[in-house]
């Protein structure tokens, strides 16, 4: 039985010399005189070969699957080195996500609410200042241009001048008007319990009427001087007799602009209607909005008066080139209107009615 088992195993294992072991056993038996025991013991003592060295490849058939080289992957440390960048990226991403989540969870909701409330408050504050400033600018322009005494007082001062000079006259008058309004507003804030608005309105209107009479008289005087100088240039001077030698006529005096114009604006600003500038600034919700309204109101007054006088001066300059002696005529007309306006204001105060 043992011989049969060893024979069957030996028959399946190829030997290096080629051929099967059974054939060799038969040859050995024939040549050596029988005895199979030495070969069987040698086969039993031979170690089993692994699957790699089982049979040499004959070059025709496909190699067995187990014959693939196992060392193609490389050593383990090279594999770990190739995977290290990917692992580091993944770890960095997880770390960033963890830190972001921690920060978001650590910030409480009231902090977000406070930041949003601060942003909204800043936007409302800016829009409030801008709206108050534009409202003050428009109110200053309308207040100045809607007053007939303002227009009548400035017309004689700006006729016959260039556009730039007329604009400067109006701006100077507007600065005086602003100064008068500021003075009246401060007096109202300091002495509001002691001031009698009706008495101030009455006397303020009378003073304005007197200033209009003065402005009208000065305008007529200047127009008369210009007319006399133009007649003298033509050789029709009535004051010169035929026996007296002709003298070079003096050039007409140019209208002076200075403190008188500024003072006229101050007088026109000392009116109870200056409360139109003060009261809205006090009624606004914040001091910054009130300051914006007050400052832009003053700027609107200066801008509107400068624009008005520049327009009057440019129109008179344009007409002077086409119509002879138009400057004198316009000055006469504006001065007469100012005188009539002043008389009407004074008469209205005495008889208890108001023109505006």
TrEMBL record:
This protein's record includes keyword Transmembrane helix: yes
Q: Which positions, given as ranges, span the membrane?
A: 171-191, 288-311, 332-353
Q: What is this protein called?
A: High-affinity nickel-transport family protein, putative, expressed
Give the highest taxon in the source lineage: Eukaryota
- Assigned keywords, A-Z: Membrane, Transmembrane, Transmembrane helix
* Organism of origin: Oryza sativa subsp. japonica (Rice)
């Amino acid at each position: 039985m043992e011989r049969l088992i060893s024979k069957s195993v030996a028959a399946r294992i190829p030997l290096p010399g080629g051929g099967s072991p059974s054939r060799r056993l038969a040859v050995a038996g024939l040549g050596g005189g029988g005895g199979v025991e030495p070969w069987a013991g040698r086969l039993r003592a031979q170690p089993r070969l692994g699957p790699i060295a089982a049979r040499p490849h004959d070059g025709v058939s496909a190699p067995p699957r187990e014959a693939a080289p196992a060392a193609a992957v490389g050593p383990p440390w090279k594999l770990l080195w190739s995977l290290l960048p990917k692992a580091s990226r993944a770890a960095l991403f997880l770390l960033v996500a963890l830190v972001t989540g921690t920060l978001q969870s650590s910030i409480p909701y009231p902090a977000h609410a406070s930041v949003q409330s601060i942003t909204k408050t800043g936007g409302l504050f800016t829009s409030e200042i801008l709206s108050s400033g534009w409202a003050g600018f428009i109110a200053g322009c309308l207040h100045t241009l809607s007053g007939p005494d303002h227009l009548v007082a400035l017309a004689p001062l700006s006729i016959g001048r260039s556009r730039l000079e007329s604009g400067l006259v109006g701006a100077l008058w507007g600065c005086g008007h602003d100064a008068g309004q500021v003075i009246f507003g401060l007096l109202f804030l300091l002495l509001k319990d002691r001031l009698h608005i009706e008495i101030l309105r009455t006397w303020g209107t009378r003073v304005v009427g007197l200033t209009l009479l003065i402005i009208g008289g000065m305008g007529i005087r200047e127009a008369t001087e210009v007319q006399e100088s133009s007649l003298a240039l033509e050789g029709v001077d009535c004051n010169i007799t035929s026996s007296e030698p002709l003298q070079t006529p003096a050039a007409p005096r140019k209208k002076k602009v200075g403190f008188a114009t500024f003072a006229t604006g101050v007088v026109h600003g000392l009116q109870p209607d200056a409360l139109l500038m003060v009261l809205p600034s006090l009624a606004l919700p914040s001091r910054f909005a009130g300051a914006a309204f007050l400052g832009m109101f003053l700027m609107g007054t200066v801008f509107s008066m400068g624009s008005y006088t520049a327009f009057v001066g440019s129109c008179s300059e344009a007409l002077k080139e086409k119509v002879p002696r138009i400057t004198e005529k316009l000055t006469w007309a504006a001065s007469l209107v100012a005188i009539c306006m002043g008389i009407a204001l004074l008469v209205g105060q005495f008889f208890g009615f108001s023109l505006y």
